[in-house]
Amino acid sequence: MFAAGNNGLLYLVWAVIGAILVVWAVSWLYRYIMTRRYKQYGGEIDGAQFEETMRKAQVIDLRESRDFHKSHVMGARNVPYSQFKEKIVGLRKDLPIYMYDMTGAVSLRAARRFQKAGFTQIYWLKNGFDQWSGKTKSDRH
Length: 141
Known about the structure:
The protein is α/β, with parallel strands linked by helices. The chain has a domain at 40-136: Oxidized Rhodanese, domain 1 (3-Layer(aba) Sandwich). Helices cover 43% and strands 16% of the residues. It is built from five helices and seven strands, in the order H-E-H-E-H-E-E-H-E-H-E-E. The strands form two sheets. A five-stranded parallel beta sheet has the order 1-6-5-2-4. A two-stranded antiparallel ribbon has the order 3-7. The radius of gyration is 20 Å and the shape is elongated. InterPro entries: GlpE_sulfurtransferase, Rhodanese-like_dom, Rhodanese-like_dom_sf. Residues 53-137 form the Rhodanese domain. This is Rhodanese-like domain-containing protein. The chain crosses the membrane at residues 12-30.
């Protein structure tokens, strides 16, 4: 089927495909474990539940300021993950945290940091702002 010289290329292609599958599986497993781990503090919620219950919470946008100003969930406060340590000081621990990022991946890391800082009600938007269909606001500069 293949000439002798193509065997090396064929093995390389299968090695790359295998590596991609391993990376995907590890990232999926990490997200699955972390989601289960932080379920005791709140956890991942879908867009409808997020929008329905966010009025009683502190809504945090973890994206960078330029993305926040383009468009964000109505009523959200910008606490970029890169400035998390400085900006978390102004948040109340007695109110739930509802947070989101672009895709949902950064929210898992932020949940861990919120938990370590003493917050007990931590929720994040499933699949992030990319999948948000609720009300948004844009800051025009």
